[in-house]
Write a structure and sequence with these properties.
The protein has about 325 residues and is α+β, with helices and mostly antiparallel strands. The chain is about 40% helix and about 25% strand. It has helices at about 10-25, 30-35, 40-50, 70, 95-110, 120-130, 135, 145-165, 260-265, 290-300, 310-325, and strands at about 30, 65, 80, 80-85, 165-175, 180-195, 195-205, 210-215, 215-225, 250-255, 270-275, 280-285, 305. A hairpin with a 2-residue loop joins strand 6 (about 180-195) and strand 7 (about 195-205). The longest helix is centred in the middle third of the chain and has 20 residues, at about 145-165. The protein is globular, with a radius of gyration of 25 Å.
């Protein structure tokens, strides 16, 4: 058995995981818990003595987590029964190390998945990437021989379709909607940026030009039908970045606290003004309000939408819906 670390920080993480673990089991032996968490039985007993005095701020002794210590200690049946901890069913948050480890594992698992299994892995991976944010997701790259070969094969398919001027039917996973979509596209070019390969194409489903990350394409088939003529559409120059703002996109003004100034470095902005208190006012073009909502939720209280006002209302409503997941159940 591999023994887990037992410092204060590791104990805190173990305690946060121990409560939901015990809540899903009516009674579980100390031996089983110790084996599942990779620590000694004595360590689990010590953890339980800490949990026994835990609860929300302001609660009295009768409102704390309840553990049947008679069953745990000598003379009992050495099983753990936990109650009065329903308020700790709220979801835990991953730190950057944990999120990165999950992304590596899921991307590795994806390459060994069947065509039926891959969309399921993609859905889980998309949620982890969205929660971790682009800054962390972009730093995680898994290139197994099979991965590289699959991407090379897809690129060759798209390049052949471009050379022959034919349409392509592809199955593409969209993380923001958590679904695999079947599309017919007119391929324009293939390029790379930030460690990912992309297909630039006219999407007939969206009736617009779109970028497709090739590693999210599970199937691609060259069709007999020729591509449509798009005289005003030009392949994107990815050397200037994935997002390329246009005058048609909404100009958004954000006030970034010192801890959120990284937004101006990571995303293209039209103007950035340093404020006396260390904050920064930035103006940036945004084509998708949903993208800005996700960014604001990730940044939290360290950023404010100055304009347009309606977009701030959308973010506020999304935040309120998210907070409902943390609301205590009625007494």
């Amino acid at each position: 058995m591999t023994t887990a670390k037992t410092g204060a920080r590791d104990q805190m993480r173990r305690l946060l995981a121990l409560v939901p673990y015990l809540q899903t089991r009516e009674a579980v032996s100390i031996k089983q818990v110790a084996a599942d968490f990779g620590v000694s039985e004595a360590r689990i007993r010590s953890d339980l003595k800490v949990l026994w005095f835990c609860g929300l701020p302001g609660l009295g002794m009768g409102d704390l987590i309840d553990i049947d210590m008679d069953a745990v200690e000598g003379g009992g049946d050495e099983v753990i029964r936990l109650s009065n901890a329903e308020y700790l069913t709220r979801p835990l948050r991953l730190d950057s190390t944990e999120a990165s480890a999950l992304m590596v594992a899921l991307r590795t698992l994806r390459e060994g998945s069947t065509d039926d299994e891959r969309p399921i892995v993609d859905r889980v991976l998309g949620k982890i990437e969205a929660a971790a944010g682009e800054s962390i997701a972009a730093q995680v790259e898994v290139l197994l021989p099979r991965t590289a070969a699959r991407i090379r094969g897809l690129k060759a398919t798209f390049e052949q379709a471009i050379a022959e001027g034919r349409q392509v039917r592809l199955v593409y996973y969209v993380p923001s909607r958590d679904e695999a979509t079947d599309r017919v596209v007119d391929p324009l070019s293939v390029g790379s940026q930030d460690g990912y390969e992309y297909l630039d194409a006219w999407c007939h489903q969206a009736d617009d030009q779109r970028l497709f990350r090739i590693d999210r394409v599970s199937q691609a088939e060259i069709l007999d039908t020729p591509v449509d003529d798009h005289p005003d559409v030009r392949p994107r120059d990815l050397s200037e970045g994935i997002f390329q703002a246009s005058e048609e996109d909404t100009l958004v003004t954000l006030l970034l606290a010192p801890g959120a100034r990284w937004v101006a470095e990571y995303y293209p902005v039209e103007e950035a003004v340093d404020e006396p208190d260390g904050s920064m006012t930035v103006r940036m073009r945004v084509g998708d309000p949903g993208w800005l909502t996700r960014l604001m939720l990730r940044v939290g209280g360290r950023a404010t939408i100055v304009s347009p006002a309606g977009w701030a209302d959308d973010v506020r409503q999304a935040a309120q819906r998210a907070l409902m997941n943390y609301t205590l159940p009625p007494a």
